[in-house]
Design goal:
The chain is an alpha+beta fold and 277 residues long. The protein contains eight helices and ten strands. The chain has a four-stranded antiparallel sheet with strand order 1-6-7-5. The longest helix has 20 residues. The structure holds zinc ion.
Length: 277
């Protein structure tokens, strides 16, 4: 499932392809992608729009048009955006939408599980929409130990659950939360509000480092995620704990353990990330 590093990788790769280009033809073949709006209506709205910026907020891609309108794309479980130059986009399996740009190339949206969404937002609607759903950006300058402490202060839930909540911080998911907690040496079940100031600092650092590592390796490909040119990311080869049950911890050699937290498979080192009683 794409998290911040995967979405940021897609953004960086698509930015030079999209910015300045016009959506010449838009075909949306899946009503789930745009519901409750009709896919043909959304396709008509997007046709003729020129892209002025491609941004990211949390796990959303924010396509800004000259008209002021915005297309918000969320890849959810298995959404992928591919850039196809040679007209072979009809062969892409699980193709749900195709945007033909005014240079003749195609941006193809594929999605096996069909949980992804495309939403057209009017200029004044964007900030309220995102503010309701997302906390701060963990790679932004405003992400300080103080702001993180404030976000966790009243949360009785396990720190892992608090970090999965997009309103705490935008963009983290199951993979990078586990990777960040290992870096910070914090047990996933620790109550969020019980973290000491040094632990908060370590957690902030751990989050940034885990995300930076993911971006540097162009994301993690476990199943469907691909970069826009079709190539996989390589972060999955660098995981410290995620999916590594029984393998030795990089830091201390203890076999990695797995449990469930907030309904999600959770990997951790029982020595580096001790539970506190
Ligand atoms: Zn360890």
């Amino acid at each position: 499932m794409p998290e911040l590093p995967e979405v940021e990788t897609v953004r960086r790769r698509l930015e030079p392809v999209l910015v300045g280009r016009r959506f010449e033809r838009v075909e949306i073949a899946d009503s789930r992608l745009t519901r409750p709006e009709h896919p043909a209506e959304v396709a008509a709205e997007l046709t003729g729009e020129r892209v002025v910026a491609l941004e990211r907020r949390g796990k959303y891609l924010v396509v800004r048009f000259e008209s002021g309108r915005v297309l918000l794309v969320h890849l959810r479980m298995t959404g992928t955006l591919l850039h196809v130059r040679d007209g072979t986009s009809v062969d892409v399996p699980h193709r749900r939408a195709v945007v033909t740009l005014d240079d003749g190339s195609d941006v193809v949206y594929r999605d096996v599980r069909r949980f992804g969404t495309w939403l057209v937002v009017e200029p004044e609607g964007l900030d309220p929409y995102l503010a309701q759903r997302l906390g701060g950006e963990p790679l932004g300058r405003a992400f300080t130990s103080r702001s993180l402490a404030a976000r966790l202060a009243n949360r009785k839930t396990p720190v892992k659950a608090a970090l999965l909540d997009q309103r705490t911080l935008a963009g983290l998911g199951n993979i990078y939360v586990d990777e960040a907690l290992w870096r910070a040496r914090i047990h996933p079940l620790r109550p969020a509000r019980g973290l000491e100031p040094p632990e908060i600092r370590a957690l902030r650092e751990g989050i940034k480092r885990a995300l930076d590592a993911g971006i540097a390796r162009h994301g993690a490909t476990l199943s469907d995620y691909r970069q826009p040119d079709g190539s996989p990311g390589s972060m999955q080869k660098e995981f410290k704990v995620y999916g590594r049950l029984g393998e030795p911890c990089d830091r201390c050699g203890t076999p990695i353990e797995k449990m469930r937290v907030a309904g999600r498979g959770t990997w951790y080192c029982p020595t580096c990330q001790r539970a506190r009683v």
